[in-house]
Amino acid sequence: MPERSYTALLRFLRPFRARIAVLVGIIALSSAIAVAPALVGQRLIDHGVLRGDSRAVWLLGGVLAAVGLGQSGLSYVERRYAATVAEDVVLRLRTDLFAHLQRQAPGFFTAARTGAVVSRVHGDVTGVQSVVSSTIPAAVGAVVMLVAAGGAVAVMEWRLVVLVLVLLPLLYLLTSKFTAALRRAGQDVLTSQADLDTLVAERLSPDGTEVIRHYSRPDCELPGFRVRADRVRTVSVRRAGVAAALGAVLTSVIGLTTAVVYVVSGQLVISGALSVGTMVALVALLARLYGPLTALPGVRAQLVAGLVAFDRAREVLDFAPRIAEQPGARRLPRTGTPPSVAFRDVGFGYPSPDALVVPSLAGDIDDGAGRDAVLTAVDFTAEPGSTVGIVGFSGAGKSTLTRLLTRSWDVTDGQVLVDGVDIRRLRLDDVRAAVGVVTQETFLFNDTIRANLLLARPEASTDELVAACQDAWIWPLIEQLPAGLDTVLGDRGLRLSGGERQRLAIARLLLKRPQIVVLDEATSHCDTVTEQRIQESLKPFLRERTCLVIAHRLSTVRAADLILVMRDGRVVERGRHDELVAAGGWYARLHQAQHAGGTGMSTITVDEASTTTETAGPTPTMRSHGVCRDGGVGWGWRG
Ligand SMILES: Nc1ncnc2c1ncn2[C@@H]1O[C@H](COP(=O)(O)OP(=O)(O)OP(=O)(O)O)[C@@H](O)[C@H]1O
């Protein structure tokens, strides 16, 4: 076991040292008292039974009963106290882990397996708990018992101490031999359990079960589950096998020792060098030693398992968040006027997953290579209070661009500026508070509508919640629900339709009142009439903010002050709606196609070679995905 693990665990346990010391004291007392019955029993036989002293028998019998009661009381206190301290240790470790995980950049969670993260916070920490609740009591108990019982044996018959002295190093050597194997087996168990948790979390999630229903069959999933569950079984059995082998070896050693003690002490009684009471006491003391001695392999195994578990928690705690605030970061003042947003020659590529997360959370996901550039030389300015519309092919990098504005990721090249300041030099909380985002997919917590809305502004009054819901056109639905705002939404809000979830997300945005608004296909799940209503009611809100609006429906961005057309991570056209239509490029073609498409789902083929007006690049023929009919009125921020 590397020294570092012990040291780190001791450092972590430092705040609990006083309570652990009290626990050790209780255990030591309890273990020392456990030797007393053998000593009292010796006197009872030698001075009471063999001398025919009935009074001494009664008296010493009473002492034995009192010792027994004392032992049981101490045992109760010891177990209860050990459990309390252990649970407090786990509470601290879990809280540290949860808080640290929350500070991780979004990239961490795109690369980590959810089940493995849950397993780390939930399962692995119990290994540390058992160090306090079982390992420390067993270890301290064993040591104190060895000293007390060994001391008593030495006083009664020093020749038998030689036996104990031979036994101890032998047992230590044996347990050391098994430690490495136990450690490896412990690691395998935790890893395979995390794999199984990941599969269960994914396959039994609402989305996962739906995909399986549509594209597969539940029984087709069973073999994959069995493989992983079987691996847990195999490695658990292997770990138990190693521990059992160690236990068997130790039991044999102890069995042989017992025989030796009986023969040696029996010979001493025959020769008159030892009393019968002493022989019985020696045998009883030896029996007392069996417990701690056979517990020793368990202690080692538990300690190894605890250290493995702690190492896994520490691995996460030591993983520095990828996006961090610079020392001396500046505040972003929250003034009445909206800030400008500028992208200066921005380049970005998603890092490889193994750079984003600790390997044991990532699993076998990547060859280690980073991805190609997703954004190249993106350069534009959104003036204060203006709106920039962003359109382009699927996968062109539109959402990535907005993720750079919230510092979900940091640019690889260039700068993102808010009011002329590089956002990496601003306080992280200020940047995230300044930007409000509504995306295509809305995540809602399994909590009440009220709680989901209050995330954006905890101090908001009920009237403010209602007003935000009215502006987002979700109030008519909430009003009809028996519990209204206090209705619980179900897992991830899946009891609402996609459009209803988006409208709640817009209400959340209204409550947040950010200075910069990002709408990334924010009403894509809403019908055209609802979208128009929302756009109308949001006009005053958006007019006072700097907005980036991503849309496939051109009607959504036609009134923007600046429209960027993106392809392959580059801005290939830019201008206002009329200018772009007049330019006759890709935007004009798409505009034409959306007007012509009577079904609302016309599909166009665009020869990119004829549409690139800004940046020359590869010119493959690309097929846009379905586009909706131009039925909306656009985000009317200009009134
Ligand atoms: N977390 C990620 N890790 C690696 N690559 C990613 C990640 N997120 C997106 N990408 C890749 O980056 C590219 C741009 O994705 P992005 O989501 O920005 O496209 P988009 O233009 O918003 O597409 P859409 O219109 O379909 O939403 C895509 O090729 C995508 O596969």
UniProtKB/TrEMBL annotation:
Its main location: membrane. The chain crosses the membrane at residues 20-45, 57-77, 130-152, 158-175, 240-262, 268-290. One of its GO terms (cellular component) is plasma membrane. Pfam families: ABC_membrane (PF00664), ABC_tran (PF00005). InterPro entries: AAA+_ATPase, ABC1_TM_dom, ABC1_TM_sf, ABC_transporter-like_ATP-bd, ABC_transporter-like_CS, P-loop_NTPase, Type_1_exporter. Residues 341-593 form the ABC transporter domain. It is found in: Cell membrane. It is a multi-pass membrane protein. Residues 21-305 form the ABC transmembrane type-1 domain. One of its GO terms (molecular function) is ABC-type transporter activity. Keywords: ATP-binding, Cell membrane, Membrane, Nucleotide-binding, Transmembrane, Transmembrane helix, Transport. Belongs to the ABC transporter superfamily. Lipid exporter (TC 3.A.1.106) family. This is ATP-binding cassette subfamily B protein. It comes from Saccharothrix tamanrassetensis.
